[in-house]
């Protein structure tokens, strides 16, 4: 372990005594974490020694504070851990990677407490993990786990009592949208007026995270295009792994599940057949509403405070000499 000193050259603060399992050595150190209560203490995940070492920065030896009993699935053991964090109560949380679990070690404990995953069992359900790696807390002490081989981030609500802190329930497994989501706090997800180029046949992916504020929300797509048209497909809203939008791929061939409103002098928006035009499947929503504007929307139940992941694919067909507007809102 090294850190920079004031002259910008590095200094060794732990280890540097070759590869081994003595108290002054490491074997495959991975995650490191500065104690949240004491900036002179560093925790080092000594991965290939299946232990977590506590070092006073600059000290000559470390003390094992988790694991150190060879690799295994017992609660006094770890198996190739990768990450450690501490909380203000002095508890350590260890990403016990090859045991597919997160364990908590209280100060001075000789065994850990299983708080997420299932010991030694890999899986992709809400109660299993597959090679977890990085872990962190948010300001409300919710625990986030990078569930590496499941390609997902898990969130666990922490329930604090007066004497100890335990993880009670798994609440959110977040679906991964088809493109990197942007965070939105207001009701407008996407808005464009008079685009300068036509992108058809390439669809663009749009994805957003949004926190519900009430018991329901309405996702709306307003389009105007005179002439030419907007093409929309694969609309999804996820709460955890539950998809909430009905007929987001328009594969019923009509607007089942959607509410239509607005007026157009020409061509109202409708589900169109044509697999070569659709982003996926056989149908897509094609809106050529000219000299007016129309909206399709869908309302679904929400839980205030929960995160929703919204995604859709959009392109425009022929432009750019007249008024062309797309507005996507969630209210
Ligand atoms: Ca489709």
From TrEMBL:
Keywords: Repeat. GO terms for molecular function: ubiquitin protein ligase activity; zinc ion binding. NHL repeats lie at residues 70-108, 116-159. One of its GO terms (biological process) is proteasome-mediated ubiquitin-dependent protein catabolic process. CDD domains: NHL. InterPro entries: 6-blade_b-propeller_TolB-like, NHL_repeat, TRIM-NHL_E3_ligases. This is NHL repeat containing protein. It holds the Pfam family NHL.
